[in-house]
Amino acid sequence: MSRPLNAGITFVSVWIAAFISPKFHLNPKLILGGFVAACIAAGANIVNDIFDRDIDRINKPQRVLPSGLASVREAWIYFALLYGVALLLSVFCNRLMLEITVVIALLLVYYSAKLKRTVLWGNLTVSAASAMTFIYGAAAVDDWRAGIIPAVFAFFFHFGRELIKDLQDLKGDLQHQAITFAGRFGAKASILLVNVLFAVLIVLTFVPYFLHIFNATYLWIAALGVDTVLLFTSVALWLKNDPATLGKFSHLLKLDMLVGLLAIYLGS
């Protein structure tokens, strides 16, 4: 339920955001911050599964709760432990990190309970929360502005990926009155919006190089390792968009996040 890969990517994102700052230095806030962000990400995935358990019986019956591998009570306990650890550790970070932790933690619970079943508001919430990971990491070295560029990238990347996930879950969402963008406007409109978001992101990936913020190594990795995947996904969505294929696209994009992080790390 906690999606270890997601939590691991979140942990790495915090450190990457700190590393690209000129003020980077290893300190307790950064170490704790990585664990705080990972715990929040893991807890948010669990609470999302709790609220989505009826929908998942249709869309993803193999998941832990609908398959009966764990009870809802056990899931709530696990969620409470992760969030509790995150909030406790964030107290020992700086004030900005504590404030971000509290706001994002509450926002992600509200997302699972209400916003996920709305047109775009849920997508915007997850995208913004993902983007804040980089602001959070840069804040650990007292330079939150250093996280702005990767935060912008993360926002558009996750926005597009969330729309793809909504397309994948369309059948179960509609049966439980969860009207997402795909449910309201259909698959073609969703794919078109994904295309627009990814096109904007592809253009934006070139900006840090031309502004001499990131080096040529960044550009080559971003162009070949990230932008080609975004372009491939954008085209392939029109050719095949059944739930199984959409799931593969979503997983491919998740792995591509690691390539993007590598580009930023080596290019800074």
Can you describe this structure?
- α8 packs antiparallel against α13.
- This protein has a single domain, classed as UbiA prenyltransferase (Tetracycline Repressor, domain 2, Orthogonal Bundle).
- The protein is an all-alpha fold and about 270 residues long.
- The longest helix is centred in the C-terminal third of the chain and has 25 residues, at about 245-265.
- The protein has helices at about 5-20, 30-50, 55-60, 65, 70-90, 95-115, 120-140, 150-170, 170-175, 180-185, 185-210, 215-240, 245-265.
Overall residue-averaged pLDDT value? 94
What's the CATH H-level superfamily name? Answer: UbiA prenyltransferase
| Proportion of residues in extended strands | under 5%
Rg from Cα: 18 Å
The profile of the biggest β sheet is: none
* Unreliable spans: none
List keywords for this structure.
13 helices, 79% helix, mainly alpha, 268 residues, Tetracycline Repressor, domain 2
Brief rundown of the structure:
The chain is mostly helical and 268 residues long.
Secondary-structure map:
Elements: H1 4-19, H2 28-51, H3 53-59, H4 64-67, H5 72-90, H6 95-113, H7 121-139, H8 148-168, H9 170-175, H10 181-185, H11 187-210, H12 216-239, H13 243-267
Helix pairs in contact: 1-2, 1-7, 1-13, 2-5, 2-6, 5-6, 6-7, 7-8, 8-11, 8-13, 11-12, 12-13
